[in-house]
Amino acid sequence: MPDVKDKTEPLAIVFADDGLVPNNPLPFLVYKGVVDVANGDPEKTIENLFGAHGWGDMWRNGIFDYLHYHATVHEALGVARGTAKVRFGGDSGKVLDLATGDVAILSAGTGHQRISASSDFSVVGAYPPGPKMQVTRPTPENYAKALDTIPLVPLPASDPVMGADGPLVRLWRGQK
């Protein structure tokens, strides 16, 4: 099991619906520096962590430089290498600095967009069991559909970082 800082509490932010990006009443979560990736294969370290907690359908890449969200699934983003500035919550959201070892967990509908990144920036993305991820751009038509689909997205059984007893479970179950 990868080295994870025990008892780390994530930053929790609830972004308002802005009329094009629905966001979600479930809080967006960010664990800062929670995963020790100081090894030869940091992507594999994050994949092992997410997989151990039941999150799958993983990919390795960056974060799109255009505003988008996922209306059918929650998403975990683990930073394996480098740094980036990412806006979460849509155009009126918040720009956060992400760095190696950080994990962001986006509830379905949370807008996100890479503003800038180091040349070595690498992210592992993962999803809880359920529908496949779909990239949704903020248009009036997509927004109207998302208002119907987001409430139907099931809560994950576990936090991708801390497992079945992790903060995500406590924070999200208390909201639904």
- Backbone structural class: alpha+beta
User: Order of helices and strands, N to C?
Assistant: EEHEEEEEEEHH
Q: What is the gyration radius calculated from CA atoms?
A: 15 Å
Q: pLDDT under 50 segments (min length 5)?
A: none
Mean pLDDT level = 95
Helix percentage range = 10-25%
Strand order of the largest sheet: 1-2-7-4-9-3
Main β-sheet description: 6 strands, antiparallel
| Secondary structure tally, helices | 3
What's the number of extended β-strand segments? Answer: 9
Q: Distance between the terminal alpha carbons, to the nearest Å?
A: 30 Å
What percentage of amino acids are in beta strands?
25-35%
Shape: globular
Describe this protein's structure.
- The chain is of the alpha+beta class and 176 residues long.
- It is built from 3 helices and 9 strands.
- The protein has a 6-stranded antiparallel beta sheet with strand order 1-2-7-4-9-3, covered by helices on one side. Strands 6-5-8 form a 3-stranded antiparallel beta sheet, with no helix packed on it.
- The longest helix has 11 residues, at 42-52.
- It is globular.
- The protein starts with 10 loop residues before the first strand and ends with a helix.
